[in-house]
Design brief:
This protein has two helices and no strands. The chain has 60 residues and is mostly helical. 0% of the residues are buried.
Length: 60
């Protein structure tokens, strides 16, 4: 039974670490794209989603 809880805790820690690393990687990509190319990825994604929303609203 102890081995089961150790596995659960190890799995939870692994998932948490991976989520933190993914968030850090996304922030790093945003920083590099903004510093090198002057592109704000978040604003472009939001503008694209708004455009998609307007398109789908007109279609349906």
């Amino acid at each position: 039974m102890v081995n089961y809880w150790i596995d659960v805790i190890a799995c939870a820690m692994t998932v948490l670490i991976e989520l933190i690393l993914i968030f850090g990687l996304a922030m790093l990509v945003q920083l590099i794209s903004y510093q090198c190319f002057g592109i704000n990825l978040y604003q472009r994604i939001i503008k694209g989603l708004n455009r998609l929303d307007r398109y789908l609203t007109n279609k349906f």
